[in-house]
Amino acid sequence: MAAHYSERSRLAAKAEATLIRHETLTILTCQDTDELKANVREAHARVRTASKLELRGLLKEIQAGHLRATAYCGYVGGPEMLDSISDFVRGSKDDRVPSLSLFELTKLFTKYDTVLTNLDEIPLHTFVQFHSHGMKDGRTTIELFRVDAAIHENMCSIFNSITDNYDFKPSYDIPKRRVKEQRALTQACIVGALQFVEAYLNGIAFDHVAMNGDTLDEAELSQLTEWNPDKKRRRSLSLREKLLTYPRIVAGLDRAPIQENNCKEFKYLLQEAKSARDAIVHASPSPDLLALGESKLPAFFASSVEHAKDAVDSAIIVVRRIQRSLGEFAKPMPWLLDRDAHGRFPEQVFE
C-alpha cells in the first residue's frame, strides 16, 4: 500500500511540476489563452483526484501538450530554468510586472521571432514585460521597455511641463513658488538630458558585448563593461570617455565619429550642461580651491528655461548623430523626435 501511495505521489508531483512549467512557458510565449488556462486548471483538478493508473495517462497527455508549447518557439532553456522563474513569471511571488531582457529570452528560445515579429529591430537590452490582463482571448500581452527610451520620455515630459506652465523670465511680480518650481523643473531637465545620453551609450555597449563579446580585445571589453579585469572591480568611465569610445568600438572605426571639434552640441553637453548637472547632482556650498574660490552655486542657480532647451536639443542631436555613425549596427529609435513648431515634444514620443 505504501509503495502504491509513493508511486502515485511521484506521478502527481511530476504532473504538477510539468503543468507549472507549461503555464510559465505559455506566458513567455503569449500562448496562454482563456481556453488553455481552463484546460490547465482542469488538469490540476484531475491530478488531485486521479488514481495511479489514470495519472500515468494524464501525465503523458500533459507532457505532450508541454512538448508542443516548447516546440512553438524553440525553447532550449531546460526544465530547471522554468522552475527558477515560474513564481515570478506567473505572478505568484510579488506584485512586480514579470519581465526578462530580450538578451535572456534569445538565449532561452531559438524562435522568439514567432512572438516578436520585429525581433531584429529590437535592442538586446530591451526588457520584455508580460502583462496578464491580456487581450480578448485572455492571453498575455507584451510591452517593451527600454531604459534609455524611458529616460528620454521623462526628459520630454518635464520639458513639456516647462513649456506649458513655466516658460517665463523670473521677476518680482511672479510668486516665489512658481519661480522655484521653474528652477526645479529646468534642473531636472538638464540632468535628464545627460542621463539620457549616458543611458543610450550604455545600451549600445551592452548590445555590442552581448553580440560580439568573443571578438573584442581585453581593452575594448574592459571599456564597454566598465570592469577592471586585473583588479576585479568596477572602473567607471566618464561621459566624455563613453562618448569618444563606445561609438568608435561599436561601429568599428579608428576614431570617434563625433568630438568637440566637429559637433557643437557634443561640446555644449560636456561643458555647460555638465557643469550645471554637476552643480545639481553634487551640490556643495564649498568653494573650488583650484578655481580661485569659485563654488558650484552660480551654476546651480543659473539653470534657466533656455539652458533646458539647449540641453534637450543637444542630447537628441548627439544621440542621432551617433546612431547614424553606427550604420547597420543601429536599432530603430522612432521615438527620438525633435520639438514641434510650438516648442513641445509631440505625442508620438510617448507612444
| Residue runs with pLDDT of under 50 for 5 or more positions | none
Lateral strand order in the biggest sheet: 1-2-3
First-to-last CA distance: 63 Å
Oligomerization state of this entry? Answer: single chain
Over all CA atoms, what is the radius of gyration?
A: 27 Å
Beta-strand segment tally: 5
* Helix content bin: 55-70%
- Structural category is mainly alpha
Number of helices: 12
Strand content is under 5%
Mean pLDDT: 91
Order of helices and strands: HHHHEHEEHHHEEHHHH
Biggest beta sheet attributes: 3 strands, antiparallel
Describe this structure in words.
- It is a single chain.
- This protein has helices at 2-28, 34-49, 52-72, 78-89, 102-108, 147-165, 176-212, 218-225, 239-251, 264-281, 297-301, 305-326; strands at 99-101, 127-131, 141-145, 227-228, 233-234.
- A hairpin with a 4-residue loop joins strand 4 and strand 5.
- It starts with a helix and ends in a 25-residue tail after the last helix.
- The chain is elongated.
- The protein is mainly alpha-helical and 351 residues long.
Short description:
This protein is mainly alpha-helical.
Tags for this model:
58% helix, mainly alpha, 3-stranded antiparallel sheet, elongated, 351 residues, 12 helices
